[in-house]
Every structure is written in structure tokens, then in C-alpha cells.
Design a protein that fits this description.
The protein has about 160 residues and is an alpha+beta fold. It is built from four helices and seven strands; from the N terminus they run H-H-H-E-H-E-E-E-E-E-E. About 10% of the residues are buried. The mean pLDDT is about 80.
């Protein structure tokens, strides 16, 4: 049988400190990487899209600035340019469906007069997904979008 040497408290502390230093260096590397910065910048532009849809937008149009649906652009006084290709995203579609379940009172099933278990119809909700399209602001033309920042075109005097 092999003998194992038990570690002292000092050796354990040293080992844990080494691992923590490696972890800190790894996390710092992730946060300093250009890919992470690019992803954060992209994600900040599409805050109303899900994580998955943000990734889909980034994969299809890495240069996208501001995306909205066809109808949303129309309501903002802009229209999608003819021939523009939409960016495919997943659109959730909620739906209701009915299912049967056994009636239970105090943890015990309820029986009908014929000896079968009584059942009730319950309305449940589900979500399906379909492919939808969103369009970048560069694919639209029309009214100027409001901006909080205006270009300084005059001299300070």
C-alpha cells in the first residue's frame, strides 16, 4: 500500500493562494481580451434582444448598430431599403393548450361513481419559436432618429 503524506496547513494555504492567483489572472485576461470587449459593446446596443438573438445578430452582422423589426422602423418614420437582407432571429410565440390531470384533494385522488379517477381539464401555456427578421439602421432611410448628443459645429465663442 502506498503511503500518502498529509499536507500541512501552510502547504494548503500556499496551494490555494496559487490557484487564486491563476484564477485572477485568467479572469483578468478574459475581461481584457478584445473579443470580450467587442461582445460587450455589441450587447449594449441590443439590450432588448435575448442573449441568443444578440449572438445571432453578431454572427450575421458584426457591424450592426441599432436593430429593429420592419414594423418598428415603420412606426419610427423610417422604411427598410428595397433589397436589404434581414438578420434572422428567433421570435417567441406564446400559446395555450389544454391537458387533462387527475383531481387530487389532500394528496388523495378523487374517484367517479363508476370507480375511475376523476379528471379535469387544465389550461397550460407554452412557447414556440419562429424565425423572424430584424434590420439594422444602415438598412433603413427616412426620418432622423432622435439623439441626446449633438455635434458641435460652431466655435465655442
Amino acid at each position: 500500500m502506498a503511503e500518502y503524506k498529509t499536507k500541512t496547513n501552510e502547504e494548503r494555504k500556499t496551494e490555494v493562494n496559487e490557484i487564486l492567483k491563476k484564477l485572477e489572472a485568467g479572469v483578468q485576461e478574459v475581461f481584457d481580451s478584445d473579443n470580450y470587449k467587442k461582445w460587450l459593446e455589441m450587447f449594449s446596443k441590443f439590450y432588448h434582444y435575448s442573449f441568443n438573438n444578440t449572438i445571432l445578430i453578431c454572427m450575421q452582422r458584426p457591424d450592426a448598430q441599432l436593430c429593429n423589426s420592419f414594423g418598428r422602423w415603420k412606426s419610427l418614420g423610417r422604411h427598410v431599403k428595397k433589397g436589404s437582407k434581414g438578420i434572422k432571429i428567433l421570435c417567441p410565440i406564446p400559446y395555450n393548450y389544454a391537458t387533462e390531470r387527475e383531481v387530487v384533494i389532500n394528496g388523495q385522488p378523487v374517484y367517479n361513481s363508476d370507480g375511475t379517477k376523476e379528471k379535469e381539464i387544465v389550461c397550460r401555456q407554452g412557447v414556440k419559436f419562429k424565425v423572424g427578421y430584424t434590420y439594422d439602421v444602415s438598412d433603413t432611410e427616412g426620418d432622423e432618429l432622435p439623439s441626446l448628443v449633438k455635434k458641435l459645429e460652431e466655435s465655442p465663442e
